Amino acid sequence: MARIPLSGTQHALRAGDYEAVIAGVGASLRSLTYQGRDLVIPFDADEVRPGHRGATLAPWPNRIVDGRYTFDGVEQQVPLTEPARHHALHGLASWIEFVPVDKEASHVTLEAVIEAQKGYPWRVIVRTTYALTSVGLTQSVTAVNDSAEPAPWGTSAHPYLVAGAGHVDDWTFELPAAQVLQVTPDRLIPTELTGVEVDAARFDFRTARPIGAVELDHAFTGLAGDEDGVVTARLTDASGSGVEMVWDAACPWVQAYTSDQPAGAADPSHRAGVALEPMTCAPDAFNAARYPYDAGMITLQPGESTTAHWRIGAIG
Protein backbone atom coordinates (compact mmCIF):
# COMPACT_ATOMS: atom_id res chain seq x y z
CA MET A 1 0.00 0.00 0.00
CA ALA A 2 1.41 3.35 -1.07
CA ARG A 3 2.22 5.82 1.65
CA ILE A 4 -0.04 8.88 1.78
CA PRO A 5 1.91 12.18 1.66
CA LEU A 6 1.82 14.38 4.74
CA SER A 7 -0.53 16.88 3.06
CA GLY A 8 -2.99 14.08 2.35
CA THR A 9 -4.21 12.28 -0.75
CA GLN A 10 -3.30 14.22 -3.89
CA HIS A 11 -5.84 15.09 -6.59
CA ALA A 12 -4.32 16.37 -9.84
CA LEU A 13 -6.57 18.32 -12.21
CA ARG A 14 -6.00 19.57 -15.74
CA ALA A 15 -7.96 21.63 -18.27
CA GLY A 16 -6.39 23.44 -21.22
CA ASP A 17 -3.46 25.55 -20.02
CA TYR A 18 -4.37 25.13 -16.35
CA GLU A 19 -3.13 22.52 -13.89
CA ALA A 20 -3.97 22.23 -10.19
CA VAL A 21 -3.27 19.84 -7.33
CA ILE A 22 -5.64 19.57 -4.38
CA ALA A 23 -4.33 18.03 -1.16
CA GLY A 24 -6.79 16.06 0.96
CA VAL A 25 -5.84 17.58 4.33
CA GLY A 26 -8.01 20.66 4.64
CA ALA A 27 -9.15 20.25 1.02
CA SER A 28 -6.18 22.51 0.30
CA LEU A 29 -5.20 24.10 -3.00
CA ARG A 30 -1.59 22.90 -3.13
CA SER A 31 -0.71 24.34 -6.52
CA LEU A 32 -2.29 26.13 -9.46
CA THR A 33 -0.47 27.00 -12.68
CA TYR A 34 -1.33 28.56 -16.02
CA GLN A 35 1.03 27.68 -18.87
CA GLY A 36 3.43 26.55 -16.17
CA ARG A 37 3.26 29.87 -14.28
CA ASP A 38 2.35 29.77 -10.59
CA LEU A 39 -0.87 31.61 -9.72
CA VAL A 40 -0.61 30.72 -6.01
CA ILE A 41 2.30 29.97 -3.68
CA PRO A 42 2.60 26.17 -3.87
CA PHE A 43 3.83 23.75 -1.27
CA ASP A 44 5.22 20.21 -1.44
CA ALA A 45 2.99 17.17 -1.23
CA ASP A 46 5.03 15.52 1.51
CA GLU A 47 5.26 18.41 3.93
CA VAL A 48 3.02 19.68 6.65
CA ARG A 49 1.04 22.42 4.95
CA PRO A 50 2.59 25.80 5.85
CA GLY A 51 -0.02 27.45 8.08
CA HIS A 52 -3.36 27.65 6.29
CA ARG A 53 -1.90 28.05 2.81
CA GLY A 54 -4.64 27.09 0.34
CA ALA A 55 -6.88 25.54 3.02
CA THR A 56 -10.66 25.45 3.08
CA LEU A 57 -11.82 27.35 6.17
CA ALA A 58 -14.90 26.11 8.05
CA PRO A 59 -17.10 26.42 10.10
CA TRP A 60 -15.71 29.91 10.50
CA PRO A 61 -13.03 31.89 8.66
CA ASN A 62 -10.60 34.28 10.28
CA ARG A 63 -10.67 34.58 14.10
CA ILE A 64 -12.96 34.06 17.04
CA VAL A 65 -11.59 36.43 19.67
CA ASP A 66 -10.39 34.44 22.70
CA GLY A 67 -12.12 31.40 21.15
CA ARG A 68 -15.27 32.35 23.03
CA TYR A 69 -18.76 33.13 21.74
CA THR A 70 -22.41 32.83 22.71
CA PHE A 71 -24.97 31.19 20.42
CA ASP A 72 -28.63 30.59 21.27
CA GLY A 73 -27.89 31.84 24.77
CA VAL A 74 -25.16 29.26 25.44
CA GLU A 75 -21.54 30.32 25.88
CA GLN A 76 -19.07 28.20 23.93
CA GLN A 77 -15.27 27.92 24.13
CA VAL A 78 -13.28 26.41 21.26
CA PRO A 79 -9.55 25.58 21.38
CA LEU A 80 -7.12 28.44 20.89
CA THR A 81 -5.29 27.61 17.67
CA GLU A 82 -3.55 30.99 17.43
CA PRO A 83 -2.02 31.03 20.92
CA ALA A 84 0.24 34.04 20.35
CA ARG A 85 -2.86 36.19 19.88
CA HIS A 86 -5.13 34.05 22.06
CA HIS A 87 -7.69 33.35 19.31
CA ALA A 88 -9.34 30.43 17.53
CA LEU A 89 -8.14 30.72 13.95
CA HIS A 90 -9.78 29.58 10.70
CA GLY A 91 -12.23 26.98 11.95
CA LEU A 92 -12.07 23.24 12.57
CA ALA A 93 -11.76 21.68 9.10
CA SER A 94 -8.29 22.71 7.98
CA TRP A 95 -6.53 19.61 9.37
CA ILE A 96 -9.23 17.08 8.49
CA GLU A 97 -8.60 14.70 5.57
CA PHE A 98 -11.37 15.31 3.04
CA VAL A 99 -12.32 12.20 1.07
CA PRO A 100 -13.23 12.18 -2.64
CA VAL A 101 -16.83 11.48 -3.57
CA ASP A 102 -16.49 12.35 -7.28
CA LYS A 103 -13.38 12.69 -9.45
CA GLU A 104 -12.75 13.39 -13.14
CA ALA A 105 -9.79 14.81 -15.03
CA SER A 106 -10.82 18.43 -14.51
CA HIS A 107 -12.73 18.33 -11.23
CA VAL A 108 -12.88 16.70 -7.83
CA THR A 109 -15.49 16.80 -5.08
CA LEU A 110 -14.27 16.20 -1.53
CA GLU A 111 -16.24 15.75 1.66
CA ALA A 112 -15.58 15.86 5.39
CA VAL A 113 -17.70 15.91 8.52
CA ILE A 114 -17.16 18.39 11.31
CA GLU A 115 -18.34 16.30 14.22
CA ALA A 116 -20.12 17.81 17.19
CA GLN A 117 -17.52 18.65 19.82
CA LYS A 118 -16.79 20.82 22.81
CA GLY A 119 -17.20 24.43 21.77
CA TYR A 120 -19.00 23.56 18.51
CA PRO A 121 -21.71 21.02 19.42
CA TRP A 122 -23.15 20.56 15.91
CA ARG A 123 -22.47 18.08 13.12
CA VAL A 124 -21.94 19.80 9.78
CA ILE A 125 -21.20 18.05 6.50
CA VAL A 126 -18.80 20.04 4.34
CA ARG A 127 -18.56 19.30 0.62
CA THR A 128 -16.24 21.20 -1.70
CA THR A 129 -15.76 20.95 -5.46
CA TYR A 130 -12.71 22.20 -7.33
CA ALA A 131 -13.28 22.49 -11.08
CA LEU A 132 -10.86 23.64 -13.79
CA THR A 133 -12.19 25.25 -16.96
CA SER A 134 -10.77 27.51 -19.66
CA VAL A 135 -11.15 30.52 -17.34
CA GLY A 136 -9.50 29.10 -14.23
CA LEU A 137 -10.19 27.17 -11.06
CA THR A 138 -13.54 27.45 -9.32
CA GLN A 139 -14.06 26.21 -5.76
CA SER A 140 -17.50 25.80 -4.24
CA VAL A 141 -18.08 25.02 -0.56
CA THR A 142 -21.41 23.63 0.62
CA ALA A 143 -22.38 23.04 4.25
CA VAL A 144 -25.29 20.93 5.47
CA ASN A 145 -26.39 21.10 9.09
CA ASP A 146 -26.77 17.47 10.12
CA SER A 147 -27.85 18.38 13.66
CA ALA A 148 -31.16 18.73 15.42
CA GLU A 149 -30.41 22.36 16.39
CA PRO A 150 -29.45 25.51 14.46
CA ALA A 151 -25.71 25.95 13.93
CA PRO A 152 -23.51 29.01 13.30
CA TRP A 153 -21.56 28.90 10.05
CA GLY A 154 -19.03 30.75 7.93
CA THR A 155 -16.49 29.76 5.29
CA SER A 156 -13.64 31.00 3.12
CA ALA A 157 -10.47 29.83 1.39
CA HIS A 158 -6.85 30.86 1.95
CA PRO A 159 -4.90 31.00 -1.33
CA TYR A 160 -1.75 33.13 -1.55
CA LEU A 161 -1.96 34.75 -4.97
CA VAL A 162 1.16 35.32 -7.07
CA ALA A 163 1.30 37.90 -9.87
CA GLY A 164 4.64 36.83 -11.29
CA ALA A 165 8.31 37.17 -10.51
CA GLY A 166 9.44 39.27 -7.58
CA HIS A 167 7.52 40.03 -4.41
CA VAL A 168 4.41 41.81 -3.20
CA ASP A 169 6.20 45.19 -3.28
CA ASP A 170 6.64 44.89 -7.05
CA TRP A 171 3.00 44.21 -7.92
CA THR A 172 -0.12 46.24 -8.61
CA PHE A 173 -3.30 45.49 -6.67
CA GLU A 174 -6.93 46.28 -7.42
CA LEU A 175 -9.61 45.63 -4.81
CA PRO A 176 -13.02 47.33 -5.25
CA ALA A 177 -13.72 47.72 -1.51
CA ALA A 178 -15.07 50.91 0.06
CA GLN A 179 -14.76 49.90 3.73
CA VAL A 180 -12.06 48.35 5.89
CA LEU A 181 -12.28 46.77 9.33
CA GLN A 182 -9.84 48.42 11.70
CA VAL A 183 -8.10 46.12 14.19
CA THR A 184 -5.79 46.38 17.16
CA PRO A 185 -2.14 46.20 16.09
CA ASP A 186 -1.16 43.42 18.48
CA ARG A 187 -4.06 40.92 18.46
CA LEU A 188 -5.97 42.01 15.33
CA ILE A 189 -9.21 42.38 17.32
CA PRO A 190 -11.87 44.28 15.33
CA THR A 191 -12.47 47.82 16.56
CA GLU A 192 -14.48 49.75 13.97
CA LEU A 193 -15.55 49.75 10.35
CA THR A 194 -14.35 52.79 8.41
CA GLY A 195 -14.16 54.02 4.86
CA VAL A 196 -10.91 53.12 3.08
CA GLU A 197 -10.28 56.84 2.61
CA VAL A 198 -9.47 57.13 6.35
CA ASP A 199 -5.97 56.00 5.30
CA ALA A 200 -6.17 55.90 1.53
CA ALA A 201 -2.46 55.32 1.04
CA ARG A 202 -2.80 52.04 2.91
CA PHE A 203 -6.33 50.83 2.26
CA ASP A 204 -7.78 52.32 -0.94
CA PHE A 205 -7.15 50.02 -3.88
CA ARG A 206 -10.38 50.79 -5.73
CA THR A 207 -8.15 52.08 -8.51
CA ALA A 208 -5.32 49.70 -9.32
CA ARG A 209 -2.00 50.88 -7.92
CA PRO A 210 1.35 49.47 -6.76
CA ILE A 211 1.39 47.87 -3.33
CA GLY A 212 4.91 49.04 -2.53
CA ALA A 213 5.69 48.85 1.19
CA VAL A 214 2.02 48.72 2.30
CA GLU A 215 1.31 46.03 4.91
CA LEU A 216 -2.18 44.55 5.07
CA ASP A 217 -3.85 41.98 7.30
CA HIS A 218 -7.35 43.43 7.17
CA ALA A 219 -10.90 42.54 6.22
CA PHE A 220 -12.66 44.68 3.63
CA THR A 221 -16.32 45.06 2.72
CA GLY A 222 -18.51 47.51 0.80
CA LEU A 223 -17.51 45.54 -2.29
CA ALA A 224 -18.42 46.91 -5.71
CA GLY A 225 -19.45 44.21 -8.16
CA ASP A 226 -20.78 44.15 -11.69
CA GLU A 227 -24.47 44.12 -12.61
CA ASP A 228 -24.69 40.54 -11.31
CA GLY A 229 -22.94 41.39 -8.04
CA VAL A 230 -19.72 39.64 -9.08
CA VAL A 231 -16.60 41.13 -7.49
CA THR A 232 -13.16 40.93 -9.13
CA ALA A 233 -9.80 41.59 -7.46
CA ARG A 234 -6.61 41.68 -9.53
CA LEU A 235 -2.91 41.35 -8.85
CA THR A 236 -0.51 42.12 -11.74
CA ASP A 237 3.20 42.51 -12.36
CA ALA A 238 5.01 45.16 -14.37
CA SER A 239 4.18 43.43 -17.66
CA GLY A 240 0.44 43.48 -16.91
CA SER A 241 0.13 39.74 -16.46
CA GLY A 242 -0.96 38.25 -13.16
CA VAL A 243 -3.93 36.68 -11.42
CA GLU A 244 -7.50 37.57 -10.56
CA MET A 245 -9.95 36.27 -7.98
CA VAL A 246 -13.70 36.48 -8.55
CA TRP A 247 -16.62 35.89 -6.18
CA ASP A 248 -20.26 36.87 -5.74
CA ALA A 249 -22.56 38.23 -3.04
CA ALA A 250 -22.30 35.02 -1.00
CA CYS A 251 -19.02 36.54 0.24
CA PRO A 252 -19.61 40.18 1.26
CA TRP A 253 -16.23 40.31 3.03
CA VAL A 254 -12.65 39.63 1.92
CA GLN A 255 -9.42 39.44 3.92
CA ALA A 256 -6.23 40.73 2.29
CA TYR A 257 -2.89 39.78 3.81
CA THR A 258 0.47 40.76 2.34
CA SER A 259 2.25 37.83 4.01
CA ASP A 260 4.50 39.87 6.26
CA GLN A 261 6.55 37.49 8.41
CA PRO A 262 8.20 38.28 11.77
CA ALA A 263 11.61 37.16 10.49
CA GLY A 264 11.33 39.49 7.50
CA ALA A 265 13.37 38.71 4.40
CA ALA A 266 15.01 35.76 6.17
CA ASP A 267 11.71 33.89 5.74
CA PRO A 268 11.20 32.89 2.07
CA SER A 269 7.43 33.33 2.42
CA HIS A 270 7.84 36.98 3.50
CA ARG A 271 5.79 39.11 1.09
CA ALA A 272 5.91 36.29 -1.46
CA GLY A 273 2.18 36.45 -2.18
CA VAL A 274 -1.07 38.15 -1.25
CA ALA A 275 -3.53 35.98 0.66
CA LEU A 276 -6.96 36.90 -0.63
CA GLU A 277 -9.82 35.27 1.27
CA PRO A 278 -13.43 35.91 0.16
CA MET A 279 -15.47 35.35 3.33
CA THR A 280 -19.14 34.74 3.99
CA CYS A 281 -18.76 36.68 7.24
CA ALA A 282 -16.51 39.14 9.04
CA PRO A 283 -13.73 38.30 11.52
CA ASP A 284 -15.18 37.29 14.90
CA ALA A 285 -18.62 36.96 13.30
CA PHE A 286 -19.72 34.43 15.92
CA ASN A 287 -19.65 37.42 18.27
CA ALA A 288 -21.69 39.58 15.90
CA ALA A 289 -23.71 41.16 18.73
CA ARG A 290 -20.59 43.01 19.85
CA TYR A 291 -20.30 45.00 16.64
CA PRO A 292 -22.36 47.87 15.17
CA TYR A 293 -22.18 46.49 11.62
CA ASP A 294 -23.49 43.38 9.88
CA ALA A 295 -20.89 40.69 10.54
CA GLY A 296 -22.75 38.24 8.29
CA MET A 297 -22.76 35.09 10.41
CA ILE A 298 -25.00 32.44 8.85
CA THR A 299 -27.37 30.44 11.04
CA LEU A 300 -27.99 27.05 9.46
CA GLN A 301 -31.27 25.45 10.45
CA PRO A 302 -31.40 21.64 10.87
CA GLY A 303 -31.09 20.04 7.44
CA GLU A 304 -30.43 23.39 5.76
CA SER A 305 -27.56 23.91 3.34
CA THR A 306 -25.66 26.92 2.05
CA THR A 307 -23.04 27.37 -0.70
CA ALA A 308 -20.33 29.86 -1.54
CA HIS A 309 -17.91 29.84 -4.43
CA TRP A 310 -14.98 31.76 -5.93
CA ARG A 311 -12.66 31.48 -8.93
CA ILE A 312 -8.94 32.08 -9.52
CA GLY A 313 -7.80 32.76 -13.07
CA ALA A 314 -4.80 34.05 -14.99
CA ILE A 315 -4.42 37.55 -16.40
CA GLY A 316 -2.35 37.76 -19.58
Description:
The chain has one helix and 27 strands. With 316 residues, the protein is an all-beta fold. The strands form seven sheets. It has a nine-stranded antiparallel β-sheet, with no helix packed on it. A hairpin with a 2-residue loop joins strand 1 and strand 2. It is globular and about 55 Å long.
Task: Note the topology.
Blueprint: E1 10-15, E2 18-23, E3 28-34, E4 37-38, E5 56-57, E6 63-65, E7 68-71, E8 74-77, E9 87-89, E10 99-103, E11 107-114, E12 124-133, E13 136-145, E14 151-153, E15 156-157, E16 160-161, E17 172-174, E18 177-183, E19 190-195, H1 200-203, E20 209-210, E21 217-223, E22 231-236, E23 242-247, E24 253-257, E25 274-279, E26 298-300, E27 305-315
Antiparallel strand pairs: 1-2, 2-3, 3-4, 5-15, 6-9, 7-8, 10-11, 11-12, 12-13, 13-27, 14-26, 16-25, 17-20, 17-22, 18-19, 18-21, 21-24, 22-23, 23-27, 24-25
Distance between the termini: 43 Å
Largest sheet: 9 strands, antiparallel
Shape: globular
What letter string, H or E per element, gives the SSE order? EEEEEEEEEEEEEEEEEEEHEEEEEEEE
Q: Please compute the radius of gyration using only Cα atoms.
A: 19 Å
**How much helix, percentage-wise, in residues?**
under 10%
Query: What are the low-pLDDT stretches, counting only 5+ consecutive residues below 50?
Result: none
Indicate the proportion of strand residues. Answer: 35-45%
Mean pLDDT: 97
Largest sheet, spatial ordering of strands: 10-11-12-13-27-23-22-17-20
Note the quaternary state here. Answer: single chain
Record field, number of beta strands? 27
Number of helices: 1
Structural class: mainly beta
